[in-house]
Every structure is written in C-alpha cells, then in structure tokens.
Specification:
Number of helices: 6
Radius of gyration: 25 Å
Strand content: 25-35%
Number of strands: 12
Oligomer: single chain
Helix content: 25-40%
Number of domains: 2
Largest sheet: 7 strands, antiparallel
Structural class: alpha+beta
Amino acid sequence: MSFSLFGIHVFNLIGSLLMNKMTAKPILTALSCALLMAASSSSASATTLLAEDFNDVTFIGTNTVRNVNAITSSANPSIRNQLPAGTTWQSSNAVNANVNIRTSTNDINTTGKNAATPAAVQGFNNFFNSNFLVLGDNGGAIGGDPTSGNMSISLPFIVGNGGSAVDISFDYSFYGQRRNPALFDVDFFIISIINEVTGATAWNSTILFSQPGDPDLFGPFSDITYLNQGSYFLTFELDESDLQNANGAQLINSAVGVDSIQISTVPEPSTLILVGLGLAGAALVRKKRS
C-alpha cells in the first residue's frame, strides 16, 4: 500500500474514532505514536545520492578551462576521479571543448550581462564563486564557438530501497547573444533524469533563452519528483539548434553554467501529512483528558 493510500485510510479511521468517544482515546494515542515513529524513520533514511561542485577538478598552469573529455578519458585514475565515475558527455558537432569546467576567474564568469546591446559579448556577471560546469562555449566569454548544436553532460546516481522521492537542486546561469534582435528565436537548457537501463526519461525541466535581459535565467533551481529503484543519469543539455539568418549565421549564441549539483532522497509529501494527523490525534487526546 502506498503512503498516500495509507494516509486516506488513517484519515477515515480518525474520523470514525471521533464519533466514538469510548474507544477514541487509547486507539488515537497508539495511532499517533505509530505515525510519528514511521515519519521519523522515513526522515532518518534521507541520503545524498549525487553531489558535485567541480571543486576537485584541477587546471594546468594558468589555464582557467578544463575540458570534460580530458578528465573522463584520462589514463590517470586521479584525474578521472575528479568527476563521478561513469560521467559521460556528448556534442552534436564533435567539438569536445564545448563541455568544460572553469574557474570563477574565467572570462565567461567575469564578463557582465549587456542587455542594452544584445549582439555584444556576454557573460554570467560573476554569478559563480568557485569552479563550475559550462555547456555551449569552448573558452572565453559568450560570443565565440560553438554557436550551434547540442551538447550535454550526464552524471550517474543510484536510487535504492524500493524507490524514493528525490530533491533535485543546482545553481545555474543561462545567457547569450542575440545577433539579430529583429528576428525571434530561442535556445533551450534541458535538465533530465534518464533511466540508465531503459533510456526512458523519468523527469525533466526546460528553461528558455530568447534574448539578453530575459528574466529568471539564473539562480538556484530545485524540484522534487519520485523515482523507482534503479540506476539513473542526471543530464544537463544545451540545445542551440536555432534558426539562421540569410547568411547562415546563428541568431542566438548562448551558454549555460551549472554548479552545486545535488540529488537527495526526501520523505514523500504524504509522510508529512501523516505527521500532521499524528500530532492532531495526540492533541485531541490531551484536550479530552483536560
């Protein structure tokens, strides 16, 4: 029986007990204790399934960019271990440099946002204060290569114990150039959880970029979903498959930065309802005794 269905039965039982004062006191007391113990046990089992802040990544010399491909394909285990084992990346234009880790001093972070001049070189305006992931640019501020294509990174994690509600959280900044303000187009930042075995999408969310000055394109992201027991990938994808003008140039050139990635198990919302029912029952018993 699911927690939600169990909660409905508990609610109905409490309603019936309230109609019978003779039996309500001892049963409500026992029921309240059982519910509180169950909720406490669920809370205690909450665990972190994935945590990545990219601060283990090392850089060569004065470089402020490290390609993910150079990390995951390294023959040196100490370098490969700078990212979670099993991390993969993809790029539609076969340029491995456009999926990379950067320091907070890199130009893409220190360059400001210029909404007044959409076609100008753009950046994240010092949003990040430590190492972070970049999709969609291979070196400096937003304005260079690549200007189109799809690129992604996938981080593995495992859900055990029959499945769980999970909290997905990270910090992000999504920005770019609009090279022809007279023509409308959009780039997509897609976050997905993919079942490693079946390839099915278990959860996803999409954030859109149209032009410099668009609101709500940076900050903390958080969402809760339920996942069955199994192996998964958390995938971050930038889709720059946008329109071109008459000369073949892309209308939008964007990039996204990501940091402080975490997936943790959480009690189901219905468990919190059970806690409330348990407390209500205990309060009712105390009131009747006074």
